[in-house]
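Async update (no meeting this week)

Hi team, since we skipped the sync, here's where things stand on the single-chain job. The sequence we agreed to prioritize is pasted below, unchanged from the tracker. I ran it this morning and attached the output directly underneath so nobody has to dig for it. Comments welcome in thread, and please keep replies under the output.
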Amino acid sequence: MEDRLTEVATALYLGGCGDARAVEPLIRMLVDPAYECVAAAAWALGEIGDARAIAPLEEARNRDEFEVYWDSGRTFSDIGVRLISKPGFPPPHL
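Output:
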């Protein structure tokens, strides 16, 4: 239980920092058996807003726990909104 709390706290801290270097470790947390860890990682990835998280978040939505489905879907949406609001979107070829 203590390890799970440490993982959740770490994910929340990393999301609050917004550092893109945390994306890969947070993506790895999306397959953790504990839904609390997955939900924290999903939130943190949404705070960072890196497009690398989109496919892993979509995959995490296939889990049975409602909380994981909800958090990963919300984060997936948040990242999409951030990407389309960046200058240069849509790309010129669209």
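Quick observations from my side:
The longest helix spans residues 66-84.
Helices lie at 2-17, 23-29, 35-48, 54-60, 66-84.
Reply here if anything looks off.
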